[in-house]
């Protein structure tokens, strides 16, 4: 039977770095990436048959657990009717209507195939709508790998320690203005230095790509006001937070109305889906109705729509799920905090809803610099200690843990025990 090590060696012969997305390569935590073969609920099984409690959940989509029966059932039925038409289908309208119902700030949405596509398209539309070229992003926020965003991006980009990717031209970079997360004064200063030139402010309303960093009180409200005063489009990148932090994502949880929203992950139920949406007057700029071109061979793919619609509908019709997720994640947070305190470790635990991260040697992580100052080496030891004990955390200190409905109290307790044993071993 081939081990992960065997498979990784072979993969590197044909795939750059042996992976199809850098963060999977264990670069920042070291060691050989574990190859998985199947998953169910909160449990993933690697190629050696070892089970792990999964806190990645495919980076967000598996909010109701892996291989959620209604999703799999619907997918099997849909597959028999062809895997793609390249024509309009009724299901695309149904999921678009459901998204706009769950996120009332949206009048219209356009389906794409990834969060990257959603964010790059949203910026293009905002630029066309305002006839301006610059936009503001925040250090440590990740909006996918499109050129304009790979400037001090989070997630895999910072995990590799290469926040500014080669290949991004200076011509592109000049239009990307960088602000510090949770620093309203810095945003205002940038807007005043670029009066009348800023098309949009884009951010993760709860950052999840420099670990989890909540917006400080008043931050989102201030950005809303600044965008109104400066005629800029406020774009919430809810690829991660959308339909996770509440039935209406972060915009509902924090009661802020962005002008546009980018979506992904949960709306595809594990299949490749992204979407961008917004107010009618903005979205009517999008081809074929308006002049802003945006397209995709597999956008609105029937299999992806089937999985996404089935999952979203269950979240919409059983909103108690969000309270369950909140309660379970708080339970895990409290368990972890007890263990960190027992070992007298200085740890910042950030949590919003079912998104959680911990940062070593830090008291308070409110921006990218704070996240970078945390002890990545200690995280590495904890990661491997937990992996050894069958708990699969994100292989990077710049990611967020996702809890699903399938994470039972028993699994959460096992996670806390594994953490205690890991710290026992490290601190011995
Ligand atoms: P994708 O293009 O990977 O579907 O989405 C990009 C994206 C956009 N916006 C936010 C807030 C995101 O979190 C992401 C992607 N998230 C990472 C996890 N931190 C994907 C994992 C990976 O790159 O393999």
Please explain how this structure is put together.
The chain is an alpha/beta fold and 428 residues long. The protein folds into 2 domains: 4-67 and 319-427, Aspartate Aminotransferase, domain 1 (Alpha-Beta Complex), CATH 3.90.1150; 69-317, Type I PLP-dependent aspartate aminotransferase-like (Major domain) (Aspartate Aminotransferase, domain 2), CATH 3.40.640.10. Helix content is 39%, strand content 15%. The chain is built from 15 helices and 14 strands. The strands form 3 sheets. It has a 7-stranded mixed beta sheet, sandwiched between helices. It has a 4-stranded mixed beta sheet with strand order 1-2-3-13. Strands 11-12-14 form a 3-stranded antiparallel beta sheet. Strand 8, helix 9 and strand 9 (260-264) form a beta-alpha-beta unit. Helix 2 packs antiparallel against helix 11, helix 3 (90-102) runs parallel beside helix 11 (302-317) and helix 12 runs parallel beside helix 15. It is globular, with a radius of gyration of 21 Å. The chain starts with a helix and ends with a helix. The chain binds ligand KE4. Residues 21, 23, 59, 114-116, 119, 142-144, 155-156, 204, 208-209, 237, 239-240, 264, 274, 399 line the site of ligand KE4.
